[in-house]
Amino acid sequence: MASSPAPKTHIAHTLLSRAHSPDSATQQFTERIKQKPLFLRATSPSASDNRSRRRLHRLRKKEYFLRHQKPQPLSAREKRKSGLYDLPKEECKYAIFKGLHDLWVGYMQEILDVKAGAHGHVSPASHGSKLVSADYHGAEVEVVRSGCAGRVGTKGIVVRDTKFTFVIVTEKDEMKTIPKEHTIFRFTVPVPAPSEGAQDQQTQSDAKAPKPLVFELHGNQFENRPVDRANKKFKWRNIDYI
């Protein structure tokens, strides 16, 4: 009986055995050639499939761009349309904003360094820049002089401070918009009451209680937004409309 022929050696194994040792050649042939997966290309897509693939790629690229894009701020028209600055009528009550006024009083006492029972000298040179850059949301203002005589005497708590107007809530729960131009506002910062021990000493010495601080605000020189006033330097200006 004829013997079976010897198995034929693969040409790649023969070439590897010339450059490497037998063990290394066998290992590389097994890993890189014999066990290497063979990827078959799928059937070529049709023209409609190519259009769908390109459209999907454009949509994904646009979605990625919009997701990583910085959102644009709303315009003034969009803010008015969305009602961002609208105040509900049922919430425009003087009693509701009275608590905001109490917080504002403490805020101003801290700015002006007003201590219990007494206060230091407050002058335009030393505290003018602080008053100009302060926030007046919650201040109780009164119109003492205006180009329109009908606005004189109007008093209320500021609920909105815009560039050219003060929106206030009066004690009758009425919302009123007061323009700053040619208008002088007056507001008061009370001095904190002294403690019990200091109050007894003050009563024994018959000393007079410190009067509250009264300021007048000229609207013509105050036509700035609160966010812009915070970094604006105080400058003296002539008052030619009084």
Automatic annotation (TrEMBL):
Pfam families: RNase_P-MRP_p29. The lineage of its organism: Eukaryota, Fungi, Dikarya, Ascomycota, Pezizomycotina. Its main location: nucleus. SMART domains: POP4. GO terms for biological process: rRNA processing; tRNA 5'-leader removal. One of its GO terms (cellular component) is ribonuclease MRP complex. Belongs to the eukaryotic/archaeal RNase P protein component 1 family. Keywords: Cytoplasm, Endonuclease, Hydrolase, Nuclease, Nucleus, tRNA processing. GO terms for molecular function: endonuclease activity; hydrolase activity; ribonuclease P RNA binding. It is found in: Nucleus. This is Ribonuclease P protein subunit. Residues 1-55 are annotated as: Disordered.
